[in-house]
Specification:
CATH topology of one domain in chain A: Enolase-like, domain 1
Order of helices and strands of chain A: EHEHEEEHHHHHHHEEEHEEEEHHH
Strand content of chain B: 5-15%
Strand order of the largest sheet of chain B: 3-2-6-4-5
Low-confidence stretches of chain A: none
CATH architecture of one domain in chain A: 2-Layer Sandwich
Shape of chain A: globular
Mean pLDDT of chain A: 97
Low-confidence stretches of chain B: 1-39
Strand order of the largest sheet of chain A: 4-5-8-6-7
Radius of gyration of chain B: 21 Å
Oligomer: heterodimer
CATH superfamily of one domain in chain A: CO dehydrogenase flavoprotein, C-terminal domain
Strand content of chain A: 15-25%
CATH superfamily of the largest domain in chain B: Beta-grasp domain
CATH architecture of the largest domain in chain B: Roll
Helix content of chain B: 25-40%
Number of domains of chain B: 3
Distance between the termini of chain B: 47 Å
Radius of gyration of chain A: 19 Å
Number of helices of chain A: 13
Largest sheet of chain B: 5 strands, mixed
CATH topology of the largest domain in chain B: Ubiquitin-like (UB roll)
Shape of chain B: elongated
Number of strands of chain B: 6
Helix content of chain A: 25-40%
Mean pLDDT of chain B: 85
Number of helices of chain B: 7
Structural class of chain A: alpha+beta
Distance between the termini of chain A: 48 Å
CATH class of the largest domain in chain B: Alpha Beta
Largest sheet of chain A: 5 strands, antiparallel
Chain lengths: 328, 202
C-alpha cells in the first residue's frame, strides 16, 4: 500500500473542500473497497479523508418512505424494520451481500461507489482501460465468464458488483448528493454511467461530490419486491446474475406497476425496461412472467465464456417475478 | 484541539504546496478563530507515523503509526497480539475477525488510525483469567478445528453471532458464519460448537 496522508472530516463542507480541490484525495468510510484496492495498488490516493465522523448515519422513516444516511452500514439498514417491511428487496439484497463482518463495516454510500470485481481491473499487471486508460481490455477475448452480456463497450465489459444498487433500481430510490455547488438529487437509474469510451468514469458525480443519503420512496410495488441472487457458492459470493423485481398487482390480478432490475450482467445496475413494458396491464401469471423474462434478455450477447448468463437471466427473472407476484 | 506532531515547519511546508487544499490550523490563532477556520478545512497528518491510541481488550495503547497501518498489523506487529491471524489480508477469509464496539469486523480492512475511540476485543480478550469463554470451551469440546489458523476468527465471529441473537438452526449458523473460511473443512464441528453454546445460554 502506498504511503498517504490522513484527515478526519468533522463537517460536510470541509470534507467537500478537501477532496474537490485535490486530485489525489479520496473519501474513506467503511474502507472495505478502497483499502482492498490500495493493497492491490489499483488505487493510490495521496490523501484519505475520513468521513465517518460526519452526521450521515441515521436511518429515518419519513412521511414518504425511508431516508437512509450515506454512512449507515449495510447490516443496520438490512435489520431496520421499516426497510424490511416496505422494501423487502433492499433488505434481501443487503443480507445476500458480502459477509456479516463486511456488512458491519461497509456503508450505503460506499456500496454505490464500489469498483468492479473484474480480475483484470484488480490486477495491476494486466491491461484495463478503466484502471489505465488506453491499456486495453483483458476481458474482451480473455477470461470473461463473469463479465457483462449487455451494456459493455469495446473498452470495457466489466460488471457492477453491488446487489444493493440493483434492489434500489426496483424501488425507484433517489441518491442525495452534496458538492461545492450545492445539493442535488439523482434517481438511482441515472447515477451510474455506461463505460462507452470513458470506462474510468462510473457515476455522474463530480470530483468531491459526496453522497449524503439514499431515499426509498414508499410504493405498493416496492412493498411487493423480491431479490433473487444466483451465484457459484451458496453464500459470500458476488452474483453471476441477480434480479430485483417489484410488482403492484390489483385485486383482480392485473399488474398495475412493475420494476425489473438486473445485476451481474452489465457494467451498471441494469434496469430492464422491456420486461417492465411486457408486464404492465397484463394478468400476473406464469405466461406473463415468461414473456417478460424473454424481453429482459433482449440485446444480450456472449463474449465467449459468458453466454450462459443469458439463459440464466431469463430463468431468474421469471422466478423473481413469481416471488414478487406471490405465486412462488 | 490536538496538534499532534505537526511542527510549525511542516505546517508551513504543507501550506506552501499549491496542489494541497488541506491546511493545518495555526497554533497562533485564538480558539474562536480556529473554530471558524475548521469549517472550511480538514487537517491532514502523515504519511510519517502519527500518534494513534488503540483501546484493546480494555487497555489503552499509545502508538506511533503510519496512517496506512491496518488494525491487524498494529495488533500483531506492534502490540504482540498474534492471536488475530492474517490469512488473505483482503477481507475474504475472516481469520482477522475482531470486535469493534462489540461488532465483528475484518481487522485487515480497518486502518488502525480509524479504530481509535472504539473498544477493540481480540481473541486474547475473551477469557477471564483461566476461565475460557463458553464458545472457546465449546470449540475444544466439539473439536472445532484442525490446523487452528482460522480458529480465533471463527470464535470471534461466533461470539458476535450469538450476541446478535441470530437464529441458530444449522442452515442459519452456516449462513451467518460464511465470512469465516476454514481450509481444513472443520465446519461441521464449528457449527456444532456454536449451536451448543447457543443452547446453553438460551
Amino acid at each position: 500500500m502506498n504511503a498517504f496522508r490522513y484527515a478526519q472530516a468533522h463537517d460536510v463542507a470541509s470534507a467537500l473542500a478537501s477532496v474537490a480541490g485535490d486530485p489525489g484525495a479520496t473519501y474513506i468510510a467503511g474502507g472495505t473497497n478502497v483499502i482492498d484496492l490500495m493493497k492491490e495498488n489499483v488505487e493510490r490516493p495521496a490523501l484519505l479523508v475520513d468521513i465517518t465522523g460526519l452526521p450521515l448515519r441515521g436511518i429515518e422513516p419519513t412521511a414518504h418512505g425511508v431516508r437512509v444516511g450515506a454512512l449507515a452500514v449495510m447490516s443496520d439498514v438490512a435489520d431496520h424494520p421499516a426497510v424490511a417491511r416496505d422494501f423487502p428487496a433492499v433488505a434481501q439484497a443487503l443480507l445476500l451481500s458480502a459477509s456479516p463482518q463486511l456488512r458491519n463495516m461497509a456503508t450505503i454510500g460506499g456500496n454505490l461507489m464500489q469498483r468492479t470485481r473484474c480480475a483484470y481491473f484488480r490486477d495491476a499487471s494486466q491491461p484495463c482501460n478503466k484502471r489505465a486508460a488506453g491499456s486495453g481490455c483483458g476481458a474482451l477475448g480473455g477470461v470473461n465468464r463473469r463479465h457483462a452480456v449487455i451494456g459493455g463497450s469495446e473498452q470495457c465489459i466489466c460488471t457492477h458488483a453491488s446487489d444493493l444498487a440493483v434492489a434500489l433500481l426496483a424501488v425507484d430510490a433517489v441518491v442525495h448528493v452534496r458538492g461545492r455547488a450545492g445539493e442535488r438529487s439523482i434517481p438511482i437509474e441515472h447515477f451510474h454511467v455506461l463505460p462507452g469510451t470513458t470506462p474510468q468514469r462510473e457515476t455522474v458525480l463530480e470530483r468531491g461530490e459526496l453522497i449524503t443519503a439514499v431515499e426509498l420512496p414508499a410504493a405498493a410495488a416496492a412493498r411487493n419486491s423480491y431479490y433473487l441472487k444466483v451465484r457459484d457458492r451458496a453464500s459470500y459470493e458476488f452474483a453471476l446474475v441477480s434480479v430485483a423485481a417489484a410488482l403492484d398487482v390489483s385485486a383482480g390480478g392485473r399488474i398495475r406497476a412493475a420494476r425489473v432490475a438486473l445485476g451481474g450482467v452489465a457494467p451498471i445496475p441494469w434496469r430492464a425496461h422491456a420486461a417492465e413494458a411486457a408486464l404492465v396491464g397484463k394478468p400476473a401469471n406464469a405466461q406473463t412472467f415468461a414473456a417478460a423474462a424473454a424481453a429482459a434478455t433482449r440485446g444480450m450477447r456472449s463474449y465467449g465464456q459468458n453466454g450462459f448468463k443469458i439463459a440464466l437471466t431469463q430463468r431468474a427473472v421469471a422466478r423473481a417475478l413469481a416471488h414478487a407476484g406471490g405465486a412462488a | 484541539m490536538e496538534f499532534g506532531k505537526v511542527t510549525r515547519r511542516r505546517f508551513l511546508w504543507r501550506s506552501a504546496l499549491p496542489t494541497i487544499a488541506v491546511v493545518g490550523l495555526d497554533p497562533r490563532l485564538s480558539v474562536a478563530a480556529q473554530a471558524v477556520a475548521s469549517i472550511s478545512v480538514v487537517r491532514a497528518q502523515g504519511p510519517e507515523p502519527i500518534p494513534v491510541t488503540l483501546n484493546v481488550n480494555g487497555k489503552p495503547h499509545a502508538l506511533q503509526l503510519e496512517p496506512r497501518v491496518t488494525l491487524l498489523d498494529a495488533l500483531r506487529e506492534r502490540l504482540g497480539l498474534t492471536g488475530t491471524k492474517k490469512g488473505c489480508d483482503q477481507g475474504t477469509c475472516g481469520a482477522c475477525t475482531v470486535l469493534a464496539d462489540g461488532r465483528r469486523v475484518n481487522a485487515c480492512l480497518t486502518l488502525a488510525v480509524m479504530a481509535q475511540g472504539k473498544s477493540i476485543t481480540t481473541i486474547e480478550g475473551l477469557a477471564s483469567g483461566d476461565q475460557l469463554h463458553p464458545l472457546q470451551a465449546a470449540f475444544i469440546e466439539h473439536d472445532g478445528f484442525q490446523c487452528g489458523y482460522c480458529t480465533p476468527g471463527q470464535i470471534m465471529s461466533g461470539v458476535a453471532l450469538l450476541s446478535e441473537k441470530r437464529p441458530t438452526d444449522e442452515t442459519s449458523v452456516r449462513e451467518w458464519m460464511s465470512g469465516n473460511i476454514c481450509r481444513c473443512g472443520a465446519y461441521p464441528n464449528i457449527v456444532a460448537a456454536i449451536r451448543a453454546t447457543a443452547g446453553r445460554s438460551a
